[in-house]
């Protein structure tokens, strides 16, 4: 029988206490990866511990759970180090942690602009920088960054979020060029609207409007994004780097 695609690999998934990150952690574990789970709030720790225990039981993999804020470079280093301490290597980094602070640009506070850039863009950079050193030594690595279709097309009321996600695309392409010769691939996923806590806030009217703009006439599921992340983390994606792959039900067509 063939082994699952990521048997024995070691993965760090930021922002994995719920939503897309939790689904990605599960998809990687289902493929045999040992997974380090993360979130920034002590309140999320219980969810992390519960998911970790479930993944160990269901897939027989090893896990660890680390509370840390990706926007803090020291926490990002600690996340990478604790993954290596737990599993010996760091083969896959999924930069999924993200926040929104929506509002029209004219009324947006400095804090709301800065917070979103700090977590979504600088947090992604912090974790990439922390993971790249061990990956360069290993001469292999997979980095998957969560961008958004909003980072490609823009969105009224999300100037901070769209700028952060457009930044993630530039970061992804630059790192792909810097790290390709070390056998490290760096790709971005650009989801459309996915059913999670982040999109729970949509009103019925907003949801109806959105669905009519999506070719497949529905929001996406976290598991659908997770399957793409697991593919990009696998050997089957070894020749894909610097790409931004939209997963949006045809919304951006
Ligand atoms: P959720 O809000 O459901 O989950 C976000 C996760 O990130 C939580 O685990 C949260 O835990 C964690 N997190 C937030 N801030 C930090 C931080 N500073 N450091 C570490 N962890 C943090 O989000 P989604 O699952 O909806 O989104 C996941 C990613 O996908 C995000 O990057 C988002 O921008 C992107 N995306 C989502 C779309 C959607 O429609 N849902 C569409 C396009 C992109 P805690 O609060 O405890 O820190």
TrEMBL record:
Its EC number is 1.1.1.100. The active site is at 161 (proton acceptor). GO terms for biological process: fatty acid biosynthetic process. It catalyses: a (3R)-hydroxyacyl-[ACP] + NADP(+) = a 3-oxoacyl-[ACP] + NADPH + H(+). It comes from the Bacteria. Residues 9-192 form the Ketoreductase domain. NADP(+) binds at residues 15-18, 69-70, 96, 161-165, 194. The keyword Lipid metabolism applies. The keyword NADP applies. Keywords: Fatty acid biosynthesis, Fatty acid metabolism, Lipid biosynthesis, Lipid metabolism, NADP, Oxidoreductase. InterPro entries: 3oxo_ACP_reduc, KR_dom, NAD(P)-bd_dom_sf, Sc_DH/Rdtase_CS, SDR, SDR_fam. It is an enzyme of class 1 (oxidoreductase). SUPFAM superfamilies: NAD(P)-binding Rossmann-fold domains. It holds the Pfam family adh_short_C2. Pathway: Lipid metabolism; fatty acid biosynthesis. Catalyzes the NADPH-dependent reduction of beta-ketoacyl-ACP substrates to beta-hydroxyacyl-ACP products, the first reductive step in the elongation cycle of fatty acid biosynthesis. Homotetramer. Belongs to the short-chain dehydrogenases/reductases (SDR) family. This is 3-oxoacyl-[acyl-carrier-protein] reductase. The lineage of its organism: Bacteria, Bacillati, Actinomycetota, Coriobacteriia, Eggerthellales. The gene is fabG.
């Amino acid at each position: 029988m063939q082994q699952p695609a990521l048997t024995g690999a070691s993965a760090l998934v930021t922002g994995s206490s719920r939503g897309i990150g939790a689904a990605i952690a599960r998809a990687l574990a289902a493929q045999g990866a040992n997974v380090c789970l993360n979130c920034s709030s002590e309140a999320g720790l219980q969810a992390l511990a519960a998911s970790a225990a479930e993944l160990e039981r269901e897939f027989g993999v090893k896990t660890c759970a680390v509370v840390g804020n990706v926007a803090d470079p020291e926490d990002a280093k600690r996340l990478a180090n604790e993954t290596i301490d737990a599993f010996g290597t760091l083969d896959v980094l999924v930069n999924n942690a993200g926040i929104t602070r929506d509002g029209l640009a004219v009324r947006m506070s400095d804090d709301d602009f800065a917070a979103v850039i700090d977590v979504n863009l600088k947090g992604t950079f912090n974790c990439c920088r922390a993971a790249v050193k061990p990956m360069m030594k290993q001469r292999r690595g997979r980095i998957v960054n969560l961008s958004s279709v909003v980072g490609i097309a823009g969105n009224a009321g999300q100037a901070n979020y769209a700028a952060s996600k457009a930044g993630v695309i530039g970061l992804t392409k630059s790192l792909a060029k810097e790290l390709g010769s070390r056998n490290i691939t760096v790709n971005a996923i650009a989801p459309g609207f996915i059913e999670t806590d982040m999109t729970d806030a949509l009103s019925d009217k907003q949801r109806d409007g959105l669905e009519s703009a999506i070719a497949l006439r529905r929001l996406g599921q976290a598991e659908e994004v997770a399957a793409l992340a697991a593919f990009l983390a696998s050997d089957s994606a070894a020749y894909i780097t610097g790409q931004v792959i939209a997963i949006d039900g045809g919304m951006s067509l």
